[in-house]
Specification:
single chain, 248 residues, 7 helices, alpha/beta
Length: 248
């Protein structure tokens, strides 16, 4: 469902001053007008009925019925997508923006960036983090995704083991001793809640693969052409969601 996401600085006030980008989205893109009411939520997943009282301000009232004033009336697939958490190794430049937009639109639960041996970039500058957060927020609003809108996290690839609440898959560019295809791997887990690790340019090192395998992560080899780092994740998520929608 398409829901307007309040800025992360919002802390419960009844009046909400719109930033220029938010105003352009509501007034110019969605063509809403003064007096219209729609659903919005904050970064803590609290829902509100938002009334446009001017082109620059909303009046917010907490609601327990967020579906009453949705921004859309889509008739598309509405069943819940099983939780999928993506751990994406940081790529070069604007590739990360493409990655976070596509994965958010695909409806993954959360996107966590990771550093690895082959990552040429080892973190983000503050303005890069703000940019990625803005892109994710816009993607959620445009697509109706249930992706959690929160501050962008960056952790080491080895910390995925303790961070992930789900069974872990990792994409690897060649077959290893414990490699499975995607269909086999999904059938071998008790629930369809999973985490998947995607490497950066150059993939995941042998040392990191051994560490992940020794901690019960499953290597996955996709039967396809060699994929770029920025397309591997969305390809894998599309395949997973297709398999799950067909109930394996």
């Amino acid at each position: 469902m398409r829901i307007f996401i309040l800025d992360k600085s919002y802390s419960g006030e009844s009046d909400y001053i719109l930033r220029k980008r938010e105003k352009d989205y509501l007034i110019k893109v969605l063509r809403l007008k003064v007096g219209d009411i729609f659903t919005c939520k904050d970064i803590n997943n609290n829902y509100y009925d938002a009334s446009i009282i001017s082109e620059d301000m909303l009046s917010l009232t907490p609601t327990e019925n967020p579906e009453e004033h949705l921004l859309d009336s889509f008739s598309a697939y509405r069943d819940a997508i099983p939780p999928i958490r993506v751990y994406q190794a940081i790529c070069k430049g604007k590739k990360n923006e493409t990655i976070i937009r596509m994965l958010t639109e695909a409806g993954v639960e959360e996107i966590v960036f990771i550093t690895s041996q082959f990552s040429q970039e080892k973190g983000f500058k503050e303005h890069d983090l703000r940019r990625l957060s803005d892109i994710q927020k816009e993607a959620v609003q445009q697509s109706g995704s249930n992706t959690k809108v929160r501050d962008i996290r960056v952790i080491d690839i080895k910390d995925v083991i303790s961070d992930s609440p789900y069974p872990i898959f990792f994409l690897h560019q060649s077959s290893r001793g414990k490699t499975q295809n995607l269909l086999e791997a999904l059938k071998n887990i008790k629930s369809y809640e999973i985490s998947i690790i995607i490497g950066s340019e150059g993939g995941i090192s042998d040392e990191e693969c051994e560490f992940l395998e020794n901690n019960n992560a499953t290597p996955i080899l996709l039967p396809t052409n060699i994929l770029r780092a920025e397309t591997a994740g969305i390809f894998a998520i599309g395949a997973i969601e297709t398999l799950l929608s067909n109930q394996l």
